Amino acid sequence: MRYSIADDARPQVKLLIVATIASFVLWLMSMYLPLVGYVVYPLQLFATFIHEGGHVLAAILTGSSVQSLTVSPDTSGEVYSMGSGWCSQLFISSAGYVGTTAFGAAMLVWIRYGFSSRRALYISSAIIGVLTVFFGILAPVWNFFANVTIGSLAFTVFSGIVLTVGLFAVARFASLKWTNFAVAFLAVQCLLNAMFSLMQLFVIAGFTNMHSDAANMAAATGLPGIIWVFIWMGLSILLISVGLRLYAVSRITKTESVFED
């Protein structure tokens, strides 16, 4: 059994290649041209919200109480939750990086099967809006600002509103060509951000004592944090592989190849 690019997927593959090249070019340019960094910055914040949203979803599914969600100007983020046992902690800590990768892969599959790119952007806008309102504002207020500062709260709310409105505006007013590109671009950003973040986490877990998801897992399980980094990398690579296969390839069986001959 072998695989090839499906004929009906070739336009989407070209779109994905363009989005990937654009992402790398912007990333490289941002290293030398600070102004370009302002273009990449909202995309990094979007990926951070998705990452923290993974923690929130995992906490809710395991019966934990989400105390707050914050996103910082340096594009890091934190979710505080209570009431989680060992298994819940494992699920919650793993859901950030793996969840970001899963979201990016899901967007690829969404495009591949011809679902509305506008709807994908509306859904993305709604996700950021819900995270901002319920867990960036209401949850901290309900818990008397126990785990947040006014500065972190203000930035979370501001960036969440900007992303929510921006995604909604692109979905509402951009042409179909640009909404298709926007969805592919966001998918690539999520996938790249997850992998780059895991590489950074490898350094943090292996050579520092900084607080991180890997440190949480080490405390909960006794396994070194760097082991969890490799586990999350493996899961992320698997999800990316499945997403790309569903996105771009069609299976050709031995029987089908006989008919082609």
Describe this structure in words.
The chain has 261 residues and is mainly alpha-helical. It has one domain. The protein is built from nine helices and four strands. The strands form two sheets. A two-stranded antiparallel sheet has the order 1-4. A hairpin with a 5-residue loop joins β2 and β3. The longest helix is centred in the last third of the chain and has 32 residues. The two termini are 16 Å apart.
Rg calculated over all Cα atoms:
20 Å
Number of domains: 1
First and last CA, distance: 16 Å
Number of helical runs?
9
User: What is the number of E strands?
Assistant: 4
Main beta sheet = 2 strands, antiparallel
The proportion of strand residues reads: 5-15%
Give the proportion of residues in helices.
Answer: over 70%
Class computed from helices, strands and strand pairing: mainly alpha
Chain-averaged pLDDT: 83
Strand order of the largest sheet: 1-4
- Principal-axes geometry comes out as globular
Spell out the helices and strands N to C: EHHEEHHHHHHEH
Q: Which runs of at least 5 residues are low in confidence (pLDDT < 50)?
A: 250-261
